[in-house]
Amino acid sequence: MLHMKMKPICPLFIVFLLSIMLSAADSNPVIVKNELVLESGPGRYAQVRHIVLKGSYEQIGKALGEIARKDYKANLVKYASPIYAKARLEYMKKNNPPMAQYMKGIAGAYGLSLENTDFDTSYLYYCMDSPKCSAVFFPAEISADGKNFYVSNRDYYTAGMSEIMGGEKKPGEIDFLSRLFVIETYPDNGYASIGIGGLDLLNTRIDSVNSKGLAVAVLEDDTLGMEHTNKDLSRQTGLTQYQTVRLIIDTCATMDEAKQVILNNKISTSMMPAHFIVADSSGASFIYECSPDDFSDRIIDSAKGKPAVITNNSVYQYPTVDKLPEPSKDDYDTFNRFRRLVNFVDSHKGKYTAEDGQKAMGLVFGRVDEASEGGPHLLPLRTLYTTVVNIDEGKISVRFYQKDGKLDEKTRLHELIFTEPLEFQLKKQ
Fold first, then answer.
1. pTM of the shown model
2. Whose CB has fewer CB within 10 Å in the chain, the N or C terminal residue?
3. Are 305 and 141 in contact (CB under 8 A)?
């Protein structure tokens, strides 16, 4: 009989095998991709995750819940009482069936039943606040390549909650919008979509476009103001503005369908006052706002064949430059940005290219340190990313903020250093 002497197995090899087994056990086939495309560090501000999900709405919800728990340590919002939970689920089943399925999947990821009355599974917040921003939509008939596209900047403080509230930054505290994501979803029985977001992994698509060529860009509405927002998520009813955008992207192919979603739902300005522009591949667009006077829905159709400009002031209340208040000395003032963008498009000769759109966004970068924007002391407000969204092709080109460059001694404005453009595009189904 032969006796073979076994060689000792390397402990590192055992660890490697165990890691593969654990990874396989934790894997979810719905998660096609979940990887960091940018990691934060010295001179690299943004952490950006690219997520691709394919499956049913319930499966996508479960996958989002798993990613939210594992990668973002997101906790669910607790209901004030069971009656809010029951009413919310009933509302979603009647008015937003995709959300009801997302909620079921998220509940599963958190070890809950859909009918649980303790935790609201219609959000996946890992941070709460609202980005300031600017955007311009260019319909195909005035674009150089015959494509509908829009450009946008997304601006916020490079600071954490403690600093924004007037205190010192706590050890290990993460800045509000330093963790962003690009997400693609391919539901079995719905419209595929791609978007850039932050704060809430389920709902907050700040920039997004679906496979039907319908796009939405969400911006903070300073005219409405924080005083008109519902700050108690535990008693939330109907849809938040961000959940409304989610429903539009999931289910709408045209302007009229998007308008009907808005008018047929109860929409609240929960946590973050916002307005948004909806545009489609026909070249049409409209802006939705909530009235600060009576909370009625306002739908403002954009002029046909012309660029549509939106910043952080009401377009319903201030539709043209001559209606704006007197110019402020504050470079980042929303009315100043609105003026600059309107002046840019009005003075432009010929059709618009994506480069023209990027030039327009360069005129309104957030690059100030102002107490008026940040509360009790100076805080840096920066453009965290700037993007071009090709609506017809479902393509996003985006540059993320990395660090400050030189300070212009005359203007006291900072140069901004961005990444090279990163390209993302919806896949044909």
1. 0.90
2. N
3. yes
